[in-house]
Amino acid sequence: MKNIECKNCGSNEFKTDSNPIICLYCGTPYIEEEKKIETLVIREKLSIKANLMIIFGIVFIFLIGIFVFSSMKGQHVIEVQKVSADNKLSHEEYGYKYIKDAGEWNEQVYDGIKTAKHQLTDDGKWGEFYDGSLYSDLVQQVGEPSSLHEDENEITAIWTQNPTSRHVLWVNVKYDKQTGMIIKKNIEGWPMDP
Questions:
Q1: Where in the chain are the domains?
Q2: Under a CB-based contact definition with an 8 Å cutoff, are residues 143 and 76 in contact?
Q3: Which residues have CB under 8 Å from 94's CB, separation 6+?
Q4: Per-residue pLDDT at 8
Q5: pLDDT at residue 1, rounded to an integer
Q6: Of 6, 27, 87, 107, which residue is 20 to 30 A from 177 by alpha carbon distance?
Q7: How far apart are CA 33 and CA 168, in angstroms?
Q8: CATH number of the domain at 91-191, please?
């Protein structure tokens, strides 16, 4: 072993059977300069790798956050645009757009209802209704209404939205008691307040 000197006290006596070598006089460990430099380089490399991994992790989390936020914002924008477009519709247009939320109704059934004509007699009085769709045929297509309201000569049937619907929606059909023919149809709706 080469002649070494303690950097702390200057002694040349060391305990050589330990690792690192320890000064017998003051107990200071002796580390060769090359090993110190090598240890510092290794620590520095590890430190650089650790810092890079931390930076990469932060950037990755940031990018995921941006992606999640933008996708949520995009959905919100779509919903807002849809609500804004729906708010521009009349009650009739809105009801027609969401008619499928009123039980078995759909656009084809609603459009297929032919309202009856009222016949004017020679003496200037209203006669019977003719050339209209029958209420009984409609009930076979869409099922029973939610409610019925009866007047002297007419009955109004009302179908409302499904309970899970996010609308206020109803379809009104008025039919003549005597002939059973539909004399008026109407649909209305609007979005429910959130």
A1: 91-191
A2: no
A3: 86, 167, 188, 189, 190, 191
A4: 83
A5: 47
A6: 107
A7: 84
A8: 3.30.1450
